[in-house]
Amino acid sequence: MAYKTDIEIAQECHMKPIGEIASLLGIDEQYVEQYGRYKAKIDPAILSGAGKNGKLVLVTAITPTPAGEGKTTTTVGLADGLRHIGKRSVAALREPSLGPVFGVKGGAAGGGYAQVVPMEDINLHFTGDFHAIGAANNLLAAMIDNHIQQGNALNIDPRRITWKRCVDMNDRQLRFVIDGLGGRSNGVPREDGFDITVASEVMAVFCLSNDLADLKARLARIIVGYTYDGKPVTAGDLKAVGAMTALLKDAVKPNLVQTLEGTPAFVHGGPFANIAHGCNSVIATRMALRLGEYAVTEAGFGADLGAEKFLDIKCRAAGLRPDAVVVVATVRALKMHGGLDKKELAAEDLKALEAGLANLLRHVSNIKNVFNLPCVVAVNRFPTDTDAEVRLVVDKCRELGVNAVMSTVWADGGAGGVELAKEVVRLCESGEADMHFAYDPEDTIEKKINDLAVKIYGGKGAVFTAQARTEMRTIAKLGLDRLPVCVAKTQYSFSDDAKKPGAPTDFEITVRSVKISAGAGFVVALTGDIMTMPGLPKVPSAENIDVTDDGRIVGLF
Predict the structure, then answer these.
(1) Which of left, alpha, beta for 126 (phi over 0: left; psi -120 to 50: alpha)?
(2) How far is CA 319 from the centre of its chain?
């Protein structure tokens, strides 16, 4: 049977004018800035008045595999499913990065009949937010080097500049560069490098800010390097904040789009969850909460990454608390965690499935027993899943006191998410949510990382390189060691080794470097061989993307 591609399904959708979607949310036209017929930015001033918030639902997943899990698809389908049962739902999602779009993953706007549209726009330039973030990042980089070139009044040590340039593309060639070559008029030669835009601290600041004033304050605190005598230099010291904010003032307004079924969706901000904090903007989440009965949001990769950071970083910073959590899994992916090759997933294999279920159960246990939140497992069902395999998943979840619900939103849209929606409503109305954090921010950086390694990842603890310990001492001297921790590690394992799927236990994570993101308000711990600038695969998705003579994009997932 031939299935339509995601882009083919999206292009067949008859979208409603974005003004109708805004009206559905009760947004007065004075707050709507249209970007064409089907996209708009919503002025955050709409949040200034008093109002009642809806319920907050977080969608997360098992550790990702090449078999796919469908977290964004489930998020969109759940939002549609809630509308099917009469609930005013709003989705709050991240914007896709061009890196994965042209690299391995392809499009990131959902899939099948559970997508946000216009799919091509969202996956490509959208409303220009990422370009604005990249420009603000690189303006700061230019002002650092210009300050040194023009006399270096702040006494910046070129060997201790920590701020990198960025570009929203997977480009390993730019990880380490030497710039400023060509003589005195072309700058001071120094080692430099690029991060992908979604790993920039400007992206994190953008997503964690409450408003423009908070954005400016956070930008001012960004540490870009150190003086010759070891004192930190900030963006505020360089007088870069006003110009950076000018580049971001429109980008900070959340983007309103719609699902294939016309459910409102805010798509705004997009830090990666393996190398950043993995959540959409605080402003967009608050907007979804204010304008809907149920705000359905997602956090990147597995629950050990995106969900942990959503709860320990975003919720702590913004005062948010989820009412329920959805953990997405597929039988296929669980069998891969159980040791099967991707080519062997079509046949029933209860032994491999049971072995792989340990991954799902650890994620579920963390949500339920560490964070103390009610959750449901959404089994994103494939045609090859047998009844016996599905029963095994349901039974194992029930042993943990958690229901597992079948989801067919990829094939059936919102109708395939009705049962999941009913369970989510039940959990939200149960009042069971009493969120705890995984660690105390007042503890040392070392203690916080060890807590995550043991309580969330299931390992023995963390080991720290000499460089990491030196960096932790520097951060402590600055009085910034009491901030939350953002662990950068592989998304493919609970450990820092991508080759350890399932639920490994006998491991330690190796912290090779610890960096301060003072503007974002967290400490970044780099583990294993994680990179803040990914590379393209042997056969990048870009090779399959094209534009027809009449301007229609094809091959975009």
Answers:
(1) left
(2) 18
Summarised one tens digit per residue, pLDDT across range 308-331 is: 999 999 999 999 999 999 999 999
Find out whether 76 and 265 touch, Cβ atoms under 8 Å.
yes
Residue 76 CA to residue 260 CA, distance in Å, equals 9
Q: Mention every residue, 6+ apart, whose C-beta is less than 8 A from residue 184.
A: none
Q: Give the span between the Cα atoms of 236 and 234, in whole angstroms.
A: 5
Tens-digit pLDDT profile for residues 473-501: 999 999 999 999 999 999 999 999 999 99
Nearest to 465 by CA among 478, 481, 479, 446: 446
Give the catalytic positions in this structure: 71, 73, 94, 105, 273, 301, 382, 410
Helix H, strand E, coil C: the string for 369-394 is: HHCCCCEEEEEECCCCCCHHHHHHHH
Place of tokens 């969850």: 273
CA-to-CA distance for 350 and 193, rounded, in angstroms?
A: 47
Pairing of strands 255-259, 114-117: antiparallel
CA angle 306, 309, 315 (to 5 degrees): 120
DSSP states of 393-419: HHHHHHHTT--EEEE-HHHHGGGGGHH
- Residue 227: strand pairing partners: 156
Strand partners, 488: 526
